């Protein structure tokens, strides 16, 4: 076996987005495309010689060949050891857990998260740093710079290794350990939650369903929920990871998790329903005939943290991404906690978590997590809810309604216009921004503008500044509308419109969300000319 140096030409489109490099599978299958990007990652790092790399993915199409290539490249580039999940499977939070637990130099996670998979679907490569979290912008920028000038890559001339059995192999001087994908992650969950209390709760009349959407959480959910916690066998549905996610869209929302939604809103629904996405970092929580908005879920998790052993000693602070509703801000205020507002993207929580400024954080995009790893964590959120339910012995709906009674309700909705023309999307954003200067104090419909800006964030830990993170218009009564272009799509552009209003009066908490936000919705359309510019009469997805 020997190491080879292969000549290559740069690709101009290897700029990592919100969450790594995400492209359609045929893009990744171009000769040298994956290799160039992996070598660009390695070229942007220093000091990894003889260190450990964690490697795995969500099981989507191209996961296995990519892993074999990356193993050979890691060997040729001088890594000492690679920990790879059995079958190539590692959920994103499990990879983060392994990087931390085994003090790895970093990790490569192969996933396009909630985007569909298969030969014509999406694929992605994310690099995580030594704290277990997504590479910060200075690292992703360096990777991009290297990708633009790469001229060669190194790869070991070696046989593929057997990923299906745990065991130890050698590629050149590098050791490859194929490890059980679940064990370390499950142990971490057991250290945070009251497994005895949840187990005894699940042995009663409580009924639950977890939909893994044929994505990565199947093996984790089966082991933890059905194995360790004794949930009825069959609790985990669609638990076999498939390369094309069974043709579905592995995104846990009301549109794409339709089977679960049908069950939870059908005749005699279970008490609790949950789903997670392709790579296991997102979550959706449902009660019988009841949807828990992710922003509310974050607020509720923070408010109930003292019921959970791993968080019983108190929280150091909380954080949410800018477009996430301000429900958690109200909890923070009441509990006397600092509350940070970051740009969209989990990576922005990393410094706050490392500096112990926050313990719990979350995003409207169905992501919740804590300082236990440096990624959002779908099963963690589901277990958190189970722990709260086991401790409070009330229904999901009652718990949420009580929360609104205490803190008031932040009506919240996100309207997505997927796959629109990129030029039209930019025109729309420019149009919104161009009106900002004269906006302060002005009346728009029934609302008076308090502020209008292009969100910019200064990281309180390292002082780095991230600009152009979404256009927000805040009104005097606390309502907001936010316009943002998605950073994770692979076709055209996706416009996200985030809408929020606050209602302190419990007598008005029953109003339908879209009705409660109706005024803001039409105002946003008028103000940004959404229908006119996108040519769409309605959003593709409403959550
Ligand atoms: C990924 C990131 C999240 C982020 C989301 C935003 O899932 O991990 O932290 O909230 O992308 O996606 P968007 O499509 O709105 O840019
Ligand atoms: Zn994901």
From TrEMBL:
<dbReference type="Pfam" id="PF02879">
    <property type="entry name" value="PGM_PMM_II"/>
</dbReference>
<keyword id="KW-0460">Magnesium</keyword>
<dbReference type="InterPro" id="IPR005841">
    <property type="entry name" value="Alpha-D-phosphohexomutase_SF"/>
</dbReference>
<protein>
    <recommendedName>
        <fullName>phosphoglucomutase (alpha-D-glucose-1,6-bisphosphate-dependent)</fullName>
        <ecNumber>5.4.2.2</ecNumber>
    </recommendedName>
</protein>
<dbReference type="Pfam" id="PF24947">
    <property type="entry name" value="PGM1_C_vert_fung"/>
</dbReference>
<dbReference type="InterPro" id="IPR036900">
    <property type="entry name" value="A-D-PHexomutase_C_sf"/>
</dbReference>
<dbReference type="GO" id="GO:0005829">
    <property type="term" value="C:cytosol"/>
</dbReference>
<dbReference type="Pfam" id="PF02878">
    <property type="entry name" value="PGM_PMM_I"/>
</dbReference>
<keyword id="KW-0479">Metal-binding</keyword>
<feature type="compositionally biased region" description="Polar residues">
    <location>
        <begin position="1"/>
        <end position="17"/>
    </location>
</feature>
<feature type="domain" description="Alpha-D-phosphohexomutase alpha/beta/alpha">
    <location>
        <begin position="185"/>
        <end position="286"/>
    </location>
</feature>
<feature type="domain" description="Alpha-D-phosphohexomutase alpha/beta/alpha">
    <location>
        <begin position="14"/>
        <end position="153"/>
    </location>
</feature>
<dbReference type="GO" id="GO:0000287">
    <property type="term" value="F:magnesium ion binding"/>
</dbReference>
<keyword id="KW-0597">Phosphoprotein</keyword>
<dbReference type="InterPro" id="IPR016055">
    <property type="entry name" value="A-D-PHexomutase_a/b/a-I/II/III"/>
</dbReference>
<keyword id="KW-0313">Glucose metabolism</keyword>
<feature type="domain" description="Alpha-D-phosphohexomutase alpha/beta/alpha">
    <location>
        <begin position="295"/>
        <end position="407"/>
    </location>
</feature>
<dbReference type="InterPro" id="IPR045244">
    <property type="entry name" value="PGM"/>
</dbReference>
<keyword id="KW-0119">Carbohydrate metabolism</keyword>
<dbReference type="GO" id="GO:0004614">
    <property type="term" value="F:phosphoglucomutase activity"/>
</dbReference>
<feature type="region of interest" description="Disordered">
    <location>
        <begin position="1"/>
        <end position="24"/>
    </location>
</feature>
<comment type="similarity">
    <text>Belongs to the phosphohexose mutase family.</text>
</comment>
<dbReference type="GO" id="GO:0006006">
    <property type="term" value="P:glucose metabolic process"/>
</dbReference>
<dbReference type="InterPro" id="IPR005846">
    <property type="entry name" value="A-D-PHexomutase_a/b/a-III"/>
</dbReference>
<keyword id="KW-0413">Isomerase</keyword>
<dbReference type="InterPro" id="IPR005845">
    <property type="entry name" value="A-D-PHexomutase_a/b/a-II"/>
</dbReference>
<dbReference type="Pfam" id="PF02880">
    <property type="entry name" value="PGM_PMM_III"/>
</dbReference>
<dbReference type="InterPro" id="IPR016066">
    <property type="entry name" value="A-D-PHexomutase_CS"/>
</dbReference>
<dbReference type="InterPro" id="IPR005844">
    <property type="entry name" value="A-D-PHexomutase_a/b/a-I"/>
</dbReference>
């Amino acid at each position: 076996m020997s190491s080879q140096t292969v000549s290559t030409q740069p690709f101009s489109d290897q700029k990592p987005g919100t969450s790594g490099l995400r492209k359609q599978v045929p893009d990744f299958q171009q000769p040298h495309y994956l290799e160039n990007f992996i070598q660009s990652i390695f070229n942007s790092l220093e000091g990894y010689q003889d260190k450990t790399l964690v490697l795995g993915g969500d099981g989507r199409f191209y996961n296995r060949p990519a892993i074999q290539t990356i193993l050979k490249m890691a060997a040729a580039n001088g890594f000492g050891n690679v920990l790879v999940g059995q079958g190539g499977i590692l959920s994103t939070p499990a990879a983060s857990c392994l990087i931390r637990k085994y003090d790895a130099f970093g990790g490569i996670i192969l996933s396009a998260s909630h985007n569909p998979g298969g030969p014509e679907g999406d694929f992605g490569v994310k690099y995580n740093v030594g704290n277990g979290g997504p590479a910060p912008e200075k690292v992703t920028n360096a990777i991009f710079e290297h990708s633009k000038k790469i001229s060669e890559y190194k790869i070991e001339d070696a046989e593929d290794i057997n990923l299906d059995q745990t065991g130890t192999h050698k590629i050149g001087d590098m050791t490859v350990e194929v490890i059980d994908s679940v064990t370390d992650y499950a142990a971490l969950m057991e250290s945070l939650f009251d497994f005895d209390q949840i187990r005894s709760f699940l042995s009663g009349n409580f009924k639950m369903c977890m939909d893994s959407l044929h994505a990565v959480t199947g093996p984790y959910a089966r082991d933890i929920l059905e194995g360790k916690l004794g949930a009825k066998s069959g609790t985990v549905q669609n638990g076999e990871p498939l390369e094309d996610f069974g043709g579905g869209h592995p995104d846990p929302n009301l549109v794409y998790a339709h089977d679960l939604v049908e069950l939870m809103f059908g005749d005699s629904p279970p008490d609790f329903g949950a789903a997670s996405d392709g790579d296991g970092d997102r979550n959706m929580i449902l009660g019988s005939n009841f949807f828990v908005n992710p922003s509310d879920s974050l607020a509720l998790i923070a408010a109930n943290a003292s019921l959970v052993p791993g968080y019983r000693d108190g929280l150091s602070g909380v954080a949410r991404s800018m477009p996430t509703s301000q429900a958690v801000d109200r909890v923070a205020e009441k509990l006397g906690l600092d509350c940070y507002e970051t740009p969209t993207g989990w990576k922005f929580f990393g410094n706050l978590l490392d500096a112990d400024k926050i313990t719990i954080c979350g995003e409207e995009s169905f992501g919740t997590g804590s300082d236990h790893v440096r990624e959002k964590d779908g099963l963690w959120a589901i277990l958190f809810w189970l722990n709260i339910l086991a401790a409070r012995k009330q229904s999901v709906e009652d718990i949420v309604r009580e929360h609104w009674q205490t803190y008031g309700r932040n009506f919240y909705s996100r309207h997505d216009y997927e796959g629109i023309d990129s030029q039209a999307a930019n025109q729309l954003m420019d149009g919104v921004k161009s009106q900002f200067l004269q906006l302060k104090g002005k009346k728009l419909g029934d609302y008076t503008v308090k502020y209008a800006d292009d969100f910019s964030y200064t990281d309180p830990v390292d002082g780095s500044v991230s600009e152009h993170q979404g256009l927000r218009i805040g009104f005097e009564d606390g309502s907001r509308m936010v316009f943002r272009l998605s950073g994770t799509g692979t076709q055209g552009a996706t416009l996200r419109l985030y809408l929020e209003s606050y209602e302190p009066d419990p007598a008005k908490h029953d109003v339908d969300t879209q009705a409660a936000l109706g005024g803001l919705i039409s105002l946003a359309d008028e103000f940004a000319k959404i229908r006119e510019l996108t040519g769409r009469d309605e959003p593709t997805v409403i959550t």
